[in-house]
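Fold this sequence, please.
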Amino acid sequence: IEAPLRVPFRPSAFEAPNATRVPISFVHDDETQEGLERVDRWVLEYVCREENLTRLFVDKKTKEDVLKMYLPLVKRDKYGSTTRAKMNLDGEHQAMLWDASDERRPLSFPDVKFGDSMCVPIVQFKSIWFSGAMWGIVQELKHIVIREPNSVCPI
């Protein structure tokens, strides 16, 4: 990644204030989008191979069905081109948060001002998820270097 990505809002789980696994969204540049779209193409090619279709979709889906069901990594919304990852806040697989200073000090999730912060995430493509008539790739945040927005007096 040449340029940092933007985190438009604080990661949280809908109506679950004590959740220990939350989604985090990233607004990304064209280079990151192209990379994520390459991953999408690879996973679609892999899953749509005949031997994988029958192994992963026991209810005999066609290649066309599977392509329609896929939820791509890149989403276009009011923030622009975005992608989401899962972020573990606690436990063995807890995401590590670091400040963007030269010292790379660890940060605590409750103290980070995420809204419009810039970051460099390290994300693992962990697995494929299935839910009803949809499927996609699980992205799990492992590390993130965060540069919080500067507070500037408006007057």
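The CA atoms of residues 39 and 73 lie 8 Å apart. The chain has three helices and seven strands.
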